[in-house]
Amino acid sequence: MPQLTRRSFLKTATIAAAGAVFTARSWSQVAGANNDIRLAIAGLNGRGKEFIRAFREIPGVRLAALCDADTAVLDRELAACRERGDALPDRVIDYRDLLTRADIDAIVIATPNHLHALQSIWAMQAGKDVIHEKPVTHNIWEGAQILAAAKQNKRIVQVFTQNRSSLAIAEGIAWMQAGHLGKLNLVRGLVYKRRLNIGKTTGSVAPPATVNYDFFQGPAPLGPLRRVNFHYDWHWQWATGNGDMVAQGNHQLDIGRRLLGDPDHPARVFTTGGRFGYEDDGETPNTFLVHYDYPAPFIFEVRGLPAKPDEMSGNAVVAGGLGTADRLSASMDRYLGVTVGNIAHCEGGRLVITNNYSLARAYDNDGKLLKEFTGFGNHYTNFLDAMRSRRESDLKGQLLQGHRSSALVHLANLSYRTGRAMAPGDIRDQLAARSALSEPYGRFTEHLAANNVDLTKTPATLGAPLTFDAATEMFTGENSAAANKLRSREYRAPWIVPQLV
Length: 501
What we know:
alpha/beta; six-stranded parallel sheet; twelve-stranded mixed sheet; single chain; Rossmann fold; Dihydrodipicolinate Reductase, domain 2
C-alpha cells in the first residue's frame, strides 16, 4: 500500500489548496460556558439519527453539518431538523469537505464499518476530535494506524461502546472482581438476535439513484452490487461489514473484555460456524462459536436463526423489515435467561449483564439473586467533557480498549475465513481436543437441527486455530500465512488508510 504523507493527503483528498494547515480551534475558547462545541455527523441512516437526537438536547453543542453519501437520507434528516425548528446544519455529501472547515471541532463517524478508520485518521490529521461508532476498524492492520494518528495529533477519540458509561456494569464488575463470587472460571458472550434472509440477486443491481456509490464504497472495490437492500445489509458482506460479531456483538465483546479485566489481545482463537437456514447474498456467518484463549476462556456465541422455524423463516427482508423487534426477539433461544448479553461464570455463582446496560445481576450457583446493580451514565456528555479538559483519561470509551475489542471481531472472522468445511463428527473431535467449545457445540448442533439444518448436507466450517502475537499484532505458527494475508485489504485510491500518520 502506498504511503500517504500530509502533502499527498491534501492532493488525493482534493480538500484544500497546497500549504493548508490543519489546526483545531483554541481550546481555551470551548472551556467556557458560552462557547459551543461544533459537531459534524457523518452517516445518518442508522446510529447517526441517534447522535442527532442526543446532541441536539445537550446545551453547549451545535450541529454544524450533516454528511451522507445518500442525498435522500441526508435530506430526510435536514427536513426533520426544519420540522423541529432546529438551527439548520450544513448539507455535505463528500466527507472530505468537512475536514478543512474551521467551524467544526469534532466529527461523529457513524458510517459503515469499512470507512471508520480512514475517516477517523483523516479527521485527526485535520485537527478534529472524533466519536467512533463501533467497530474502530474494519481489519486488524488499521488498529495500529488509528492509535498512532490519535497520539501524533493529540486528539480526543471516544469509541461508542456506551456500556463503558454504565454505572450498573461498572459496579457489578467491580463487585465481582473484588472476589464476592470467587474465582472467575469462564466468560460468555451471547448474541441470539434474529437475522433474516437478505435476498438472493440474480445479477448485479444498481445502487439507489440518490447514492454517490464512489463515496459510499470508499476503500472497498467499486465492483458490482450484489444485495437487494442497499442500506444496512452491507453488514453481511466482507468488503464493507464484519457480520454480527460487530452489528451487535462488538458491545458484548467489549463487556466480555471488561469482565476479564481489559486484557491485551488473546493468545489464540478457534471457531466454528456457517451461514445456515437460507441461501442469500450474505457472506458472514449467522451461526458462530468462538473460543478466545485468555487465562479464563472467553466463549462467544452468535445465533441469527429462531428457536424453531416460523412464518418468517427463509423470507427476505424488504424495505421496512418483517415483524417487530420484540416479535423477532421473542422467537430466539435463551441461555440462562439471556438472548443478548454476557455471563461471567465464577466458583460461587455468576454475574449476568444483558443488553439493557443499566442493569447487572449476581446469582449464586442455585440461581438465587444475590445482588442487583442499576444505573447508567451519559456517554455523549462524557465525550464533551473530555474535549474540554483535553484529558484522554476522562474518556470512558478510550480508543485503545475500543481497538482491542474490535480486534476480537477480526480474530474470529479470520479464523472462520481461513477454515474449511468439515463433517459434524470431525468438528466435534477437533473441538474436544483444542478448545472449550465442546459444550456450546452440542447446543449449536441441536439449535440447527431444530431449524431443519442437516450438517451432513450443509457442513459447518471449522475455523483455523490461530495464534496471535499481541506485541506485533501478527499471526504466528500454524495457519499464520493465510491469516496474515487478510490482516489488511487492498485499498482503492484515493481512499487509502495511510501507513504514515
